[in-house]
Records
---
Amino acid sequence: MKSQDSLVVLKEAMQSFAKERDWDQFHSPKNLSMALAGEAAELLDCFRWLTEAESSKLDANQFQAVEEELADVLLFTVRLADKLNIDLLSAAQAKIAKNGMNYPVEKVKGSSKKYTEYK
Amino acid sequence: MKSQDSLVVLKEAMQSFAKERDWDQFHSPKNLSMALAGEAAELLDCFRWLTEAESSKLDANQFQAVEEELADVLLFTVRLADKLNIDLLSAAQAKIAKNGMNYPVEKVKGSSKKYTEYK
Amino acid sequence: MKSQDSLVVLKEAMQSFAKERDWDQFHSPKNLSMALAGEAAELLDCFRWLTEAESSKLDANQFQAVEEELADVLLFTVRLADKLNIDLLSAAQAKIAKNGMNYPVEKVKGSSKKYTEYK
Amino acid sequence: MKSQDSLVVLKEAMQSFAKERDWDQFHSPKNLSMALAGEAAELLDCFRWLTEAESSKLDANQFQAVEEELADVLLFTVRLADKLNIDLLSAAQAKIAKNGMNYPVEKVKGSSKKYTEYK
């Protein structure tokens, strides 16, 4: 059943949340992009002084902080997409396909160079 | 069928994408948090000089740019969650519940004040 | 006297601060870029639900928050530049000159379009 | 002479730049915070797939990119401060003093824990 898809469930939950609080008035795409970027940056704070190795082995407090920030990022992503009538699954699949063309396996295997450096 | 859920579909697509290119070595949680925040900030660029009203009425070029950046944000969110074994749907639902307690309807209706200002 | 220039004063203050705490070990350019972006995003939090007009008329609490976040941004900017031996004043003046060529007055006056749209 | 201080030189250069282009209308503090965070995030892009060690040994192309992004961050920092009549040097020095109290040498030496973990 379509409505049980994760992204649909979250979209509807966010709609209810905003409606109950009369917050639609604040949820312009511009404002939501700021909220999203703000939450994404809080993730940076979780990792900024950890080594890469440490970032894979979080303790319970660190893990909970990351989990909550990542949840906020997803919620604002879903909310912003909803406000602009963007189908997130289709958009994400189309972007993977585009990335696949920009980073062809035979050229980038094992390398992290940005694709503009290959052209 | 569980594996048709959007978030599962995207998780598996990102796993394949990285595996084909031997990119797992670059995908530490620390690095992924940087990629995620970088993509979220590119959304800001789409909106920075628009008014709130304009941000709801994007032209075709603007819309495509926003759609692609939002897709990138979702893809890195999914990828980072996968690397840390975070169940995004559960995490997001738990966060909505927590937000509901921090922003009780009767206190915040129609107001955008941060919840710390209510305490 | 050169050493009284603001950027030099702050560079030296940050050097002392890190040295006293033995924090140089954490201040790789990669980590500092995360700290800088994290602080810049905290500024977004100050403004995300304000209208543009409101953002020009902050109350005392809001003003203090913005002042502190902006200070953090400047401090990490100075610190990152120092670690990479970048002369911030020269770099900023060169960038203004470059921006001037990308956004010639006669083409962009009164318009906020990104310069790539003019080409 | 006060007007030769780096931060004053850059403030005045940014004022002229905006005035010539009639861009003051776009430079609300809200919009400038988005521009600043956007530029700070472009720095992340320079470093996201580099190791910490690599981030200290940039090649010429990488160095130029970092230098330009860092310049943009400084320019928008100066511009936002100007719009809100914030004295950046005073604000930064006050913040260093505050940070010094939050991170007393005897408690944090050699450790990167966030100060809230000490309390």
---
Amino acid sequence: MRATLWAAVTAACLFTASALAASRETRIPDGAMATAATLRERALQSDLAWRITESLTTEVGPRLAGSEADARAVAWAEAKFRELGFDRVWKEPVTFPKWERRSERAEVLGSAAQPLAIAALGGSPGGTVEAEIVRFADLASLEAAPDGSLAGRIAFVDYRMARAKDGAGYGQGSRLRSRGPSAAIRKGAAGFLMRSAGTDSHRFPHTGITRFDEGLTPIPSAALAAPDADQLARLLARGPVRVRMALDCGWTGQATSYNVIGEIRGRSRPDEVVLIGGHLDSWDQGTGAIDDAAGVAITMAAGKLIGEMSRRERPARSIRVVAFANEEQGLWGGKAYAAAHEQALTRHQIAAESDFGAGRVYAFSTSAPEHAKAAEKRIAEALAPLGIAHAPGTGGPGPDISPFAEKGLAWARLAQDGTDYFDYHHTADDTLDKIDPRALAQNLAAYAVFAYLAASAEGDFGSAPKLASDEAGAK
Amino acid sequence: MRATLWAAVTAACLFTASALAASRETRIPDGAMATAATLRERALQSDLAWRITESLTTEVGPRLAGSEADARAVAWAEAKFRELGFDRVWKEPVTFPKWERRSERAEVLGSAAQPLAIAALGGSPGGTVEAEIVRFADLASLEAAPDGSLAGRIAFVDYRMARAKDGAGYGQGSRLRSRGPSAAIRKGAAGFLMRSAGTDSHRFPHTGITRFDEGLTPIPSAALAAPDADQLARLLARGPVRVRMALDCGWTGQATSYNVIGEIRGRSRPDEVVLIGGHLDSWDQGTGAIDDAAGVAITMAAGKLIGEMSRRERPARSIRVVAFANEEQGLWGGKAYAAAHEQALTRHQIAAESDFGAGRVYAFSTSAPEHAKAAEKRIAEALAPLGIAHAPGTGGPGPDISPFAEKGLAWARLAQDGTDYFDYHHTADDTLDKIDPRALAQNLAAYAVFAYLAASAEGDFGSAPKLASDEAGAK
């Protein structure tokens, strides 16, 4: 092929690509915008998300993945989807190792003898350790300690997580929780204590999953409530401190729970879905109100409000609401969903998970590629009256969405104000009274509007299997 | 005696009484007012009350009356008084029945199975009760229930205490705690649960002493955290609820603790004292920071600041600081003090206890009779720059002062802002972080000024043994 011919072919190809891009520009129909405005106002007046949150947290309460209560939560979710009139309700199995907390206790020994409020980290083994405490300001300091320097001691990492609207401080806090125990083991420690990854100053330790690196022998690992971390630091400033920590907890085999799914059937493209959801499991100490009954309730209620529309008003695509299993211990439900539905990836228009409490939504963004950016902007316009800013290019997918997003699923983010989220997160204090019903209604309106418009769009939001090269590029 | 002579005698007597009253008018010397102003500013800059609070709550922690930690607290107080340079330090025994909490647990049974956060009430017997719950809105409703109607059931009184700056809501709250269990027993109940006498919405149950009327067989009695009371009420709205409550606690014989006393010697009338203090014991769950390490620290620090004055500036009378034993379980220290010092009542110029947290002092009043009202007003003038209003005729003596006040001791009240006090009171969350060091310094300034001026007064504040007729009149 000669150069001139090559140039002509290239030009033709470019023209074709450009024309194709123009033809696949995703649009939100004007009629859908008008209907979304009505839906938004109806949602703001609705207490349905509140009632669903109240129902789950009251009737089931705490629901640690794999527990008897988790099974009740699954039954609750199925029944609730049916009660709300979802067109299809089903569940998909999710199997994972089961961890349970039986008891935990810590106390300062000696002349300042007193109890300390702790919570075993999820995944910690049981065991009793009585040893001297060595304090570190942060994970890096622990990692910098000489090998073997903690032999027979308990590492205490006193890192103070920062409060932030977008929860940015949790990055460091949860990193310490995940990596701290293994780092402590490498230095020879017999136990691990950390200041809770939280922003409150109440005597509630914050639990959360930890992991132990391959080849290491796990050690009892727990979080101290903030006032107890303060106390330990003050005692250490006076001299050596010995602590006894006794955890009764651990892994107890495999368990199977379920992603529980309800669907509102789309008018013209029912096999294509907009996926919204939250996670059904919670930690075992609170009733999992903000984490994540609220997310399940907001998205169930959004589905229900869309399901109530007249047949003519219903969106083209189906609204699929997923109450994910076992998010807390490693996104088990999200991974299982991605594995089970990988072949149907492109039939997933876009997905959004609500799992950041019950604060107001303040920002909206998506992973939309160029051809869907105008549609994203239109959705943002419909969300603006709720006080939600369009923040293109920010954020990422919710936790249970992320395994599928890694495979190419388009995602949206309705960012919640998480200023207070880490005051309650993973504590016994995560209960219904922490939720403002008006903020919950605003969330409901946001999810209803988003799901309705995405499901009504002409065109897609970019869901497509990632090529090996994409993945390589992403890494 | 004829009528005219009688009239002449009466007139003479009246004249004499009036002249006497004028001559015993209590005065605050101008020089003392000037010195008090300097003391006030010095106290506002001092972190001593904070450091003492930190020391007691950190080094001793929780100190339930009669416990090993209580004995450590007594040793701490003696050592602290000496360290602060008090002129005399001693302790006086206080004997009382000893109660202890070992464990407590409650759970909803059946299809909504879940744990409930409870705390045994002080004085409750141990025991396990598994029974249906009967809810009452308040104590009066429980008292109005038909006899025997609670046979084999658990009474749950869901009274919601009101928030108030002066803590007025606690009257009803603590009345329910004291009288509820006996009322429940009279109706046949096997167990007693109450919504905590508190104003927070966190999962901290509020403990506190209860009593059982003579002739009744005590039943396990506990307080629910507010969110758990909410939860129980919501479950009861759905149908019958069975709960298992298991308390391991109870009376374990007699114990002896101590009122620990430090004195700053007066310049010219050292045998007369102005008494200030707080109570040394605490409940066993928190570190007793606001209840009542703060009160002990404020008054110890006030004594210390007065003790630091030059010999020339020292007040005429001594400043006696008392760290009372076992206030929580029935004013044992206050009663013992009154009994031990009854003969010296008139040598007690006036007394004030700090036992309402660590909020700012906002009002000042005393029991001063007419001849000391001008002096009270002068003290109020010296307190005014601290934002403290003169509120004559309001309030009453602090708890440990009250047994002695009943015998005729003059008292002062430095009313603290208790708006948040019952968020933490008698919970595990009563820890140092709840205290604002600046508010504590304001308290220190208030106590230092009050004690200094009262000890410098020319004349008395009305301490005098009450006559039988006074007592009859008071009743």
---
Amino acid sequence: MSVYGGIETGGSKWECAIGTGPDDLRATETIPTTTPEETINRAIAFFDREGPVVAIGIGSFGPVDQKLTSATWGHITSTPKPGWAYTDIGQEVRRRLAVPVAFDTDVNAAALGEHRWGAAQGLDTFCYITVGTGIGGGGIAGGKLLHGLVHPEFGHMRIPHDRRRDSFDGICPYHGDCWEGLASGRAIEARWGRAAVDLEGDEAVWALEAHYLALGLVSVICVLSPERILLGGGVMNQAGLLSRTNGEVSRLMNGYLDHATDITAPELGSWSGVLGAIALAETA
Amino acid sequence: MSVYGGIETGGSKWECAIGTGPDDLRATETIPTTTPEETINRAIAFFDREGPVVAIGIGSFGPVDQKLTSATWGHITSTPKPGWAYTDIGQEVRRRLAVPVAFDTDVNAAALGEHRWGAAQGLDTFCYITVGTGIGGGGIAGGKLLHGLVHPEFGHMRIPHDRRRDSFDGICPYHGDCWEGLASGRAIEARWGRAAVDLEGDEAVWALEAHYLALGLVSVICVLSPERILLGGGVMNQAGLLSRTNGEVSRLMNGYLDHATDITAPELGSWSGVLGAIALAETA
């Protein structure tokens, strides 16, 4: 069985892994995200030391250029993350390790991981959404990873924002009160003055969060009609938030469709992304 | 060349056609939508008289059941249209005309028509949206018509609604101020007391309309990243509305992505649906 490499590049850390699947991870390493040069060098060193692999998959924070025909394929593009805009990752890894590389968004990679080994096995049309520092979404429609002009950017949808209930302006540098601007981990921390993890059990916090999450999910459901939505990311670790969000989605849909999209947790937990990157490597 | 039949079932009229494409429509008929029995009988009579055809495609108002494995495949399901909920169309047409039938939503059919002969030729991922009496959307992602648990229902996304600017409650019987509830032709007429066509040139009307349309389009762009969005339907006949809506989408996206989805008019005009139904027939 061929051994693949996977990299999940995140805004705060990179996860690197070598193996064939969740039951066969032969080496893993977590690398803090510092400068592009230092971070990429450490990832290359990991694969030099622990390899060889037949191909590498990379699931990256974005926006990214994943168009195979593009001159800047494999680059992170217009990210607001300081120092990282227009950084080449895919081509650099391919050149230095001399292996085929497949490159996509972190959330499309996670979707692929869950499709292969997790909570989306056998599904044709589903989404993977992460609610963490930011909000991102990817998925599979009609059996194929969601790509288009670029790739999905679920976090930047606009949702209703009742300022009488929540006067917070939102934290998105581009859009203020878009979905990510109102409902991401950074938004929660900025609104309430404490990190999500320190707000456990605060009724007002989680009622509002479930409401905002549900408003975005309704749009995803109305556009894609996914069979299932997997809701991952650190914010979703809050006890009761998933079930409360499901309740809000039902309330908002108000019986309009006869069938309800199943909204549930990913099965691979924090491994969805890097395992998905390994699954992605098989397509390189 | 095989000759196909197409039916576009609308809430106010059905369009029936026989032919091979836009340059070869051998017979067409417009039938007013009355009771299911009478309307279906008239469509059957048209094909009896003008046929034979090798297969029929049906693009229907919805929600519909287009799952091939379902016992109620070919049915309109939970529509609020009086007398039409849970009406079998696809199986009835197949049985009475004894030909293969392909069945999908009106907007997926229109998307397919534009893909085959119109403004979406050669595209892999795009949407067709109609802004008429209601708002509906369909399209193709990764080369395949958008299907999932059921099918897209773009019109029922929630969008921001600033009640200081617009105190209108919306007209959706399920959701009040969803996209369709605020921005459809029926919503315009209910809010301003006159039909859209009689409000030409009224600055407040069309500034608000472009704003609402753009808010929904931003969600579609963030979920699907379409290469192009085709905006059809009667409301879009308002001079300047398309270009104003484009401007609002740009303003709302605020330069977040390097690439902008092309938002333009369908090329087949009011024929997208029935021609798309003919294209759909080829898949029956």
